[in-house]
Amino acid sequence: MSRRRGRLFLASILALFLLGTALGMYTGWRERPSSPAPVPPATEGPERVEPEKADVGEVILRFTTLYEGCGHEFREVRRERGLDLTRLNELFPGWTVKELGPGRLELSKVVQGVCPGEHTFLGLDGGYVAIFKGTPGEQPSLQERTRLHVSVLTPAEVDRLREGVIVSGPEEAWRYIEGLTQ
What we know:
Layout (H helix, E strand, L loop, with lengths): L1 H28 L28 E10 L5 E9 L3 H7 L4 E6 L2 E8 L7 E7 L2 E7 L6 E9 L5 H9 L1 E3 L2 H12 L1
Parallel strand pairs: 1-4
Antiparallel strand pairs: 1-2, 3-4, 5-6, 5-8, 6-7
């Protein structure tokens, strides 16, 4: 009797596993709306379209750009006709094929630096640690200048602040500053 229970138990586990796998595959194949992400201004290339089914001969291209400096990810969807590997490389140099399926192609690219847009970051202003809005290296807007002078910081910390330390907002900026003083 215990051998029969063991087999029944294993059969139940196998059935649950197969059901879970089938459900996972089904939900993975369905089109899911992605969370809205800011889309950078379109440069030269095909016009931007909303995700939908491709017509015969068309390919839906999904682009994902990750900016390492700030961690922001931008997504864009475009429609293109008559794509082959040569034309793909001509239109989108530097992009990596992430996924390929019937009528669709997902491309990704990792970019060094920060995305175009406004960021909160820490930097130096007149020898003091300061909180800025904007993009490091450009013309940022000074939000607040602290009383923390560079003379109490290590050379490595000063170098990082000269480059600009991107943070998620003022709260994280103050936590970072507190870490500098400890």
